[in-house]
Amino acid sequence: GGAGYGSSALSQVHYATDAQGLFQDPSPQIIRRPAPGGVQTYTQNVQVRFLQPPPVPPPGPLIIREVRPPQPPVPPPLRLRQVAPPLPTPPPLVLRE
Fold this sequence. Notes:
By secondary structure, the chain is largely without helices or strands. Helix content is 4%, strand content 0%. The chain has one helix spanning 7-10.
C-alpha cells in the first residue's frame, strides 16, 4: 500500500493576482522602520549615447524635363477662290477684200 491522497489534499487554493501575476493581499501589513545607519544615498553612473543617423547619400544627377502642353490640332487648309476679271472685249474684226 502506498500513501493515498484524499480529496482535501488535491484541492487547490486560488489567490487573486494582478496583471503582472503578483498576488493581491486584501489587507496588507505595512511596516515602516528607519534604515540602519541613517538615510542612504545611492550614486549611479549613467552614460548617455546619442545614436547618429546614417549619412545622407549624395544627390543624383539633376534631370529637368520640359513638359509642354499638347498642341492644338492642325487647322484645315485655307482655300481661296478668286475669279479672274473679265477680259476686255477685243475690237471688232474688219475683213476687207
